[in-house]
Design brief:
By secondary structure, the protein is an alpha+beta fold. The protein is 27% helix and 23% strand. The chain has 15 helices and 26 strands. A nine-stranded mixed β-sheet has the order 15-14-13-16-23-18-24-22-21. Strands 3-12-11-6-9-8 form a six-stranded mixed β-sheet, with helices on one face.
């Protein structure tokens, strides 16, 4: 009877493990010009007034709120709450991962010598950031249905100090003795590219122009030739133009800025992908020359002519020689993200493949496949799957600092389990939270499958093995203050900029991390001391990065 009981318990445990694994890895003018940061001012107040009562006469109409829809609207009152305690069973957290929460404001401020001063400083910096990044084109504008004015609601752009014809201007009203419209701008002047008989134009070359005519048809013809000339240089802003007639006012924006300069890579015309011309492999090494050698050997087995860029911050660097290898020596212990910045900054190909120095390429690590997906989609970065990790599940790739600094955290992009492919993905969302800062929410999972690539999905954060468009990765960059731990921070900085995919059918191996304490070499012990240090200074940097730099007050995550 006891034997049967043990067998039953064993079956339950194994079944629970298999279910957990399935859950975890399933699918110039010379005059002076004001170039100070501009904020909304009066124009925003006018627009807000229009939004309060978009259509008159609707004050007394009753309405009913749909709670299941309204609850998803931004309310600027976010909070980070952890899941309540639950009954624990073996593998319960794998089957039903609990959400943990951490308050950056408490963790950072309680150890800061001047918490009120740093809060004021953060608020000032955030205010300046808002002023620098404010763009009037981001303000919603509604063309009123009862207005006789016709105008463009979006899509009008002008290069700095250049001239355009404003498209789509018109007036539709009943015939009267005289028809008149006017336009007003703040960053430019108006004129007409041609004149129409019977139309009076006043204010050419000024910020305010008036056009009038007894005939509506001639006025509308003249409106087809109205020009706008930008007079204030700014690389990226917008002018809010007021277009009005008697009794009606409207607003539209003209974006002002330089056009985007393309960054094209001449990889040579090939019927098939020339990986050596398209991809550079970049890595950072520290105290693991044996692992680095294994990585290089595996690369050369499949891609003998692909350039490898190595950032090395060892105290006593060893030569790393061979064809198509660029070895860059850094100051000792400069750190993880500083090394990433150095390595990626030296890449000249269209794509860069980032690998840790203890990864190993296999026959299933198809760089051609990754290039093909990036070439055929709008993705900026693509992750591969990673198998053959030692059990138990040591998770450290999306580390946010020391676990003691983030209670309940099991951070990580990779669940390391022998014999299973760990294609781990996260979604990231930021919820507005008012004056105290915003809330950061991280969840396991992805958004959707990529059409045409059934094994690939879209996510926000992936593991430490990815291929990306070099210019986009360089644009986001890596925070060099993060010396020993860091990964998720890159994806947070890239949120809203990087379009990220993850594929489970392209595999890379990882060197085993199972090392008995008495079998570790001096080099391995030194590496562990640096890599897994949990110094107060390191933890304080991570808290500051999230609390001050990113203006988060808290985080929740699985």
């Amino acid at each position: 009877m006891r034997a049967k009981y043990k067998k039953c318990v064993g079956v339950i445990l194994v079944s629970g493990l298999l279910l957990a694994l399935f859950y975890a890895w399933g699918p110039g003018t010379s005059s002076g010009v004001d170039i100070r940061p501009r904020q909304e001012g009066l124009i925003k107040e006018l627009l807000e007034g229009k939004f309060r009562d978009p259509i008159s006469g609707n004050h007394d109409i009753a309405y009913h709120i749909k709670d299941d829809v309204a609850c998803h609207l931004a309310q600027n009152t976010c909070v980070c709450l952890a899941d309540e305690g639950a009954f624990q069973l073996p593998f319960f957290n794998l089957l039903f991962p609990r959400v943990w929460a951490h308050n950056f404001d408490l963790a950072f401020l309680e150890s800061h010598p001047d918490p009120e001063g740093i809060k004021r400083h953060r608020a000032e910096e955030y205010s300046n950031f808002q002023k620098r990044t404010y763009n009037p084109a981001d303000v919603p504008i509604v063309a009123e249905a009862n207005s006789p004015l016709q105008y463009p609601t979006q899509g009008v752009a002008v290069r700095p100090l250049k001239t355009i014809i404003i498209p789509g201007l018109g007036l539709k009203e009943e015939t009267r003795s005289s028809h008149m419209v006017y336009l007003t701008a703040s960053l430019g002047t108006f004129d007409v590219a041609a004149t129409v008989d019977g139309v009076s134009v006043k204010g050419e070359g000024e910020k305010h122009i008036i056009l009038s005519s007894p005939l509506l048809s001639t006025l509308n013809k003249q409106l087809q030739f109205v020009t706008y000339t930008n007079t204030v240089f700014h690389p990226k802003t917008a002018d809010t133009v007021q277009f009005a007639t008697e009794g009606h006012k409207s607003f539209f924006t003209i974006k002002v800025g330089h056009g985007t300069i393309p960054k094209l890579y001449n990889s040579g015309y090939q019927k098939e992908y020339n990986i050596s011309a398209l991809v550079t492999i970049a890595t950072k090494t520290f105290l693991r020359y044996d692992k680095l050698k294994d990585l290089i050997d595996s690369i050369r087995q499949y891609y003998p002519t692909v350039t490898i860029v190595i950032a090395d911050d060892n105290e006593h660097p060893q030569p790393v020689t061979g064809s198509h290898i660029d070895h860059y020596i850094m100051p000792f212990g400069k750190g993880w993200f500083a090394g990433r910045n150095l390595a990626v900054s030296q890449v000249t190909t269209k794509y860069v493949l980032w690998v840790d120095d203890d990864f190993i390429l296999t026959a299933n690590t198809k760089l051609e496949r990754m290039v093909d997906i990036l070439e055929k989609t709008t993705l900026d970065l693509l992750q591969q799957g990673t198998p053959n990790f030692p059990f138990p599940g040591h998770i450290n790739q999306l580390r946010l600092g020391d676990p003691e600094a983030f209670p309940g955290q099991v951070g990580g992009a990779v669940r390391e389990v022998t014999g299973y492919t760990a294609t781990y993905r996260h979604t990231i969302s930021v919820e507005e939270g008012g004056e105290e800062g915003n809330c950061l929410h991280i969840r396991n999972g992805y958004y959707h499958v990529i059409e045409g690539f059934p094994n690939c999905v879209v996510a926000d954060a992936v593991i430490n093995f990815f291929m990306g468009r070099t210019d986009k990765i360089q644009e986001v960059g890596f925070n060099p203050r993060l010396a020993r731990h860091g990964h998720l921070e890159f994806f947070i900085d890239g949120l809203g900029s990087l379009h990220i995919g993850s594929c489970s059918d392209i595999i890379v191996n990882h060197a085993s991390k199972i090392k008995l304490p008495w079998s570790k070499t001096d080099s391995q012990k030194a590496y562990d001391k640096f890599r897994y240090s949990s110094s107060t200074a390191d933890n304080d940097i991570h808290k500051e990065v999230f609390y001050f730099k990113n203006r988060f007050k808290c985080i929740t995550s699985h």
